[in-house]
Write the structure tokens for this entry.
Amino acid sequence: MEFPFALVGDLFMQNLGLWWIILPATLIGIVVGILPGFGAQNTLMMLLPLTLSMDVTSALAFMIALYCATQLGGGVPAILFNMPGEGGAAATAIDGYPMTRKGKAQQALVLCFSSSVLAGLITTAVTIATLPLLAQLSYVIRSVEMIAFMVLGLTLIAAIASRDMLKGLIAGFMGLMIGSIGADPIFGTPRATFGFAQLYDGVPLIAALIGLFGISEALVMLEEDSVVHKKDQSTARRASWLDTFDGLRLTVKYWWQIVWTSLIGLIIGILPGAGATVAAFIAYHYSKLFSKTPDEYGKGHPCGVIAPESANNGVTSGTLVPVMALGIPGGATGAVMMIVLAYNGVIFGPRLFTDNPEIAYGVFVQMFVAYLLMLILIVPLARYMSRVVWIPTRFLVPLILSMIAVAAFSEREYIFDIGVALVFGVIGYIARKTNYEVTAMLIGVLMGPLFESYLLRSLRVGQGDPMILFSSPIGNVIWLMALASAVFPFIRARRKNGVLAQAAMAGNDD
């Protein structure tokens, strides 16, 4: 199939003319992304009557811009308050929040915004150029390959636990146990629900997420007067436009990091059920794995912000590939977009490329334009957003706890979920005080149910034979990647200890 250069060029110019729709949608999306628990899917569902009343091109431009901005905005509370509102932003908090504590919140936000936008531009351009080819990935990847992907994600527990293996693995195992709460996926038998009907669908992820990170961090904040370390407060208050340019300089310095981690997000975004959480954590892990300075991660390393944010926003174009090519929504956001398109008579699948190529390619051209306008609109805002951390914690903590209560309630509209968030907040606070890895626990909670679902599905296909898990060449490659991800950090740590021991012995001889 010949690439339609003329069509894509015309679509680009047409969508630039829709800036008056894209800019308001972008601002709404940023606000939605900053508020924990308010996802793009919830907002699009509330605005569904509005989008149905628009023509299809304007409706798509509005939904795409809002979706992309929401993915980008989720990193803001993660960086400023260690309070990610969705799973993908939890990986951003690992290094983003330490940068804030060092008085470098402005640089961290610039890194977040610029890497997110550039990743969105790169992956959208790649998607436009290879759309029919990428669509075939949805046919190739089955439950067997997804099992290997989930195991690859679970190996991150071992990687994050490398500082204290025992405590890290205990935290990860506890997360897996919490993730198993709910009805059994085969027989529907309740497990560890303690008689609460609200837990039959499993632990509410938003409540668990903001409890583990947001409430526990708010309790830690109360022990100090400011979010920023006292010795770094003068640095934070001296922040100027030069810090914005410093963040852009770091973005350019690590441009290759943005390219390959965004492509990880694109590929994982195409896979059904994986999503931004898996992409962000895998990108963070491999960024650390291939780094020459892995010990800097977790302490405020720029690449620790760039990698998850690039993958997180690389997912946006990936999730829409199966929607356009196969008519299979990868999530709730894609499902809402399908409703609007179907309302306007669009037929999904391979015929879309011949019957309505302006829709098939137009969605991704609109995404490209949205990211392009975002680059101009959002990056300058980093300077003003970063000043929020100057507010004393005695005023900041009540505001954060109020937002958390609203966010926990908004997902399912159960008062019960606020209590779940408080319970997880206490668990997270105790874990922080006893040096257990909260992030390892979160990985278990997020990926445990996905792993169980795909494992049972694969075993049913294989009639109970576990060797089916190793029956796919693609899956076997991913298994090897998972093995390397688990083993390589320990080999590198042993080598480092050996070098330090030799240096110590040489020093004693002298």
Remarks:
- The chain has a mean pLDDT of 83.
- The chain is about 75% helix and 0% strand.
- The chain has one domain: 5-509.
